[in-house]
Amino acid sequence: MKRVWDEKSKFDKWLQVEIAACEAWTELGEIPEDDMLKIKSASYNLDRINEILTITHHDMTAFLKSVSESLGEESRFIHLGLTSSDVMDTALGLQLKEASTIIEQDIIEFISVLEHQAIAHKYTLMMGRTHGVHAEPTTFGLKLALWVEEMKRNAQRFTKAKETISVGKISGAVGTYATVPPDIERIACTRLGISADSISNQVIQRDRHAEFISTIAIMGGSLEKIATEIRSLQRTEILELEEPFQKGQTGSSAMPHKKNPELCERICGLARLLRGYAITSLENIALWHERDISHSSTERVILPDACLIIDYALAILTSVIKDLKVNTDNMLRNLEITHGLIFSQKVLIALINAGLKREEAYRIVQDNAMKVWQDGKEFSILLKEDNRVTTILNEKSIDAVFDYNFYMKHVDTVFQRLGLSELKGMPTQVEKLAPHSS
After folding, report:
1. β-pairing, 167-168 with 195-196?
2. Is residue 3 within 8 Å of residue 311, measured between CB atoms?
3. DSSP symbol at 381
4. Which domain does 391 fall in, by range?
5. How many beta carbons lie within 10 A of that of residue 292, not counting itself?
6. What's the CA gap between 232 and 336, in Å, rounded?
7. Is position 419 within any domain?
8. Cα–Cα distance between 222 and 208 in angstroms, integer?
9. How far apart are CA 96 and CA 208, in angstroms?
10. CATH number of the domain enclosing 125
């Protein structure tokens, strides 16, 4: 990714655009074939460009002078009828397309790792939390499957954004084609492997770039969500997940015991940058008349940076998910710490099905739940001691409520709906877990 955005890559693509335009002029009979053969050997010198730049203060004219110095009389055909943005915006489209291809591969690899872990932990029971508080059991596989689907949506958005940004324009100073006919744009863009913009003024319109950066920012938000969940579940009091921690790695200069989720924290910070770049890209849409350069200075930062950041963040989180430590014992321990309160909705439904009105059943369940919070006594025992419950539910019926397998009965259905097939050697049936221990 760094190579895509270095100075050499930029000037290489400028030269590709200039040569493609000359080839188009040649096809239309405006440049002699012999001169075109010489133009194809054109080159530039980075040191010379920087030297000329100190005089011209214009990177395109400095580039063109360096290219002309590599040619003879045929140099007069370079940049024929073009304006700077014809070359710069078209070359930028080439850079963005190349960068997008790398990012697309990153996304594919990340989804693959997520899918593998989702299938591996399809039946790994864990506590589901809302508002940070224990809600009802879920499985770690379902959590991962949720992330898989979100990343697939990101992939779809990014494919569209890549198409939107992979365009060029060679339409002259204000987009009228007065000095360079539409056929030049069509032929040149076809040779370069990108689409010709259907209409432009002096520049390709920046709503395209805003869509591209905003799509990356949305993807960054998804990565941040995943990273935030891992960070939360790595807290000492929970410790259900842990980032990979290599032998010899240190977490703190002062506290040797520390294993911090620093990779996920890094991703969360970078996602903030991407959101800032999205705002800048949106502000770049409005330019004066047929063009100003208020967008230019920011794009030199936000376009390369956004591509570099999302490439880096995807690589980091892929490695985290691939080698994630899943503490299943702690997941089961955390399921038990509320003494069975997580079955409160099941108890509520059982009482309603036994004939109680919802309001009355809710009050009975909540009364006993509050006692568990206060005294730490087992929820199932309190229910068996409550005459309001035992008059309509016997002990066996109460025990039947406290069954973790109840929460996994539709896991297979969800995975089938998502098209997540089994890994070779993985179980195909839910292994029965022991009921909640009372």
Report:
1. parallel
2. no
3. H
4. 339-407
5. 12
6. 19
7. no
8. 22
9. 11
10. 1.20.200.10
Residues 240 and 377 in one domain: no
CB 217 within 8 A of CB 278: yes
Number of H helices, E strands in the chain: 17, 6
Q: Quickly list DSSP for 256-287.
A: TT----HHHHHHHHHHHHHHHHHHHHHHTS--
Return the active site residues. 131, 252
Query: Do 216 and 362 share a domain, yes or no?
Result: no
Within-domain flag for 189: no
Would you say the C-alpha torsion 63, 66, 70, 74 has a positive or negative sign? positive
Token couple for 24: 């188009």
Instruction: Identify residue 5 by its one-letter amino acid code.
Output: W
The CATH number for 355's domain is 1.10.40.30
Residues 9 and 143 in one domain: no
Q: Residues near 59 by Cβ (< 8 Å), separated by ≥ 6?
A: 49, 53
Which of 57, 80, 103 is the last residue before a domain boundary? Answer: 80
Q: How far apart are CA 81 and CA 358, in angstroms?
A: 79
- Rounded Cα distance between 65 and 17, Å, is 16
358 shares a domain with 226: no
Q: Could you list the pLDDT tens digit for every one of the 438 residues in the chain?
A: 999 999 999 999 999 999 999 999 999 999 999 999 999 999 999 999 999 999 999 999 999 999 999 999 999 999 999 999 999 999 999 999 999 999 999 999 999 999 999 999 999 999 999 999 999 999 999 999 999 999 999 999 999 999 999 999 999 999 999 999 999 999 999 999 999 999 999 999 999 999 999 999 999 999 999 999 999 999 999 999 999 877 777 766 677 777 888 999 999 999 999 999 999 999 999 999 998 888 999 999 999 999 999 999 999 999 999 999 999 999 999 999 999 999 999 999 999 999 999 999 999 999 999 999 998 899 999 999 999 999 999 999 999 999 999 999 999 999 999 999 776 444 433 444 545 554
Question: Does 9 map to a domain?
Answer: yes
- Furthest-apart CA pair in the chain: how many Å? 104
Residues 379 and 336: their CA atoms lie apart, in Å, by 11
The span from the CA of 274 to the CA of 261, in Å, is: 21
Closest CA to 393 of 363, 369, 436, 361: 361
CATH classification of the domain holding 64: 1.10.275.10
Encoded tokens for 87: 């070359």
Same structural domain for residues 165 and 264? yes
Give, for 212, the enclosing helix (H) or strand (E). helix 207-233
SS3 125: strand
Q: Is residue 44 a part of any domain in this protein?
A: yes
Q: Which two tokens stand for residue 205?
A: 């319109």
